[in-house]
């Protein structure tokens, strides 16, 4: 099978600090992911002054009085920081990626050389945004938190109308609750999306732990996106629903192991690694008691025991009633 693309979502977990962002890149490199992804936005273009924070944002920041605009303003990355991050990623051998949350940011990401666009769940119903993303980029990853299948289909129709073939669209099943309760994951919906819309599918995860992304790969996800942080106890809206660096590395290892495990021929046949154990684990027909030459083999004088280097017990009925051509001692392999 093709290698699953793993996107480590640093998002806004840098808390506005370029040094933290560099450390997040280092952690992503150490974990072995394919992309490290940030978020590109101008807070004034993203939210109105009156926009309130989500419940999880209030809970995770401990500040109910702060507006969403005030919170996001502290989490912006400047253009200079974007360039510095891209250069740093290049020097570390990892792909830089970012999600744009407004039209101006879409334009900016195109100017700095990104050829792949990630549509966040909140923009799935934003027609001007979707249309411009399709005009600027030739390849789309679409997150679908809070969306119905019909809404996803409408977004895909915008892309295809602008000339992006379905082969260049990957839809990520997603639940936009941080963290997502296990009962609400509904992972098989990923397969329903694939069946109904005919695109490649993946999974953007907001659960705690690493089990669900690994399960998604086993079900056929071609892209996995997962938030990560330097420390879940840091101040900020997304840290508590993010993996710490050692957990991120464990997730990558688990995904690669699952890929190897499901990447075989699909036919049930012995593997080369286990063939050496056949003679050890299987049984042969052996003498239950001492048998004299000329005696007939019967259930009273033969049985089955390891090793499996003699006559297979599947030939039991063939051996019963045959004449012993020589003397056999207890546990000796029967020969005909």
What does this structure look like?
With 336 residues, the chain is an alpha/beta fold. The protein folds into 2 domains: 5-262, TIM Barrel (Alpha-Beta Barrel), CATH 3.20.20.70; 270-336, Antifreeze-like/N-acetylneuraminic acid synthase C-terminal domain (Type Iii Antifreeze Protein Isoform Hplc 12, Alpha-Beta Complex), CATH 3.90.1210. The protein is 36% helix and 16% strand. An 8-stranded parallel β-sheet has the order 3-2-1-8-7-6-5-4. A two-stranded antiparallel ribbon has the order 9-10. Helix 1 (18-31) packs parallel to helix 5 (79-92), helix 6 runs parallel beside helix 7 (127-136) and helix 10 (211-219) runs parallel beside helix 11 (245-262). The longest helix is centred in the last third of the chain and has 18 residues, at 245-262. It is elongated, with a radius of gyration of 30 Å.
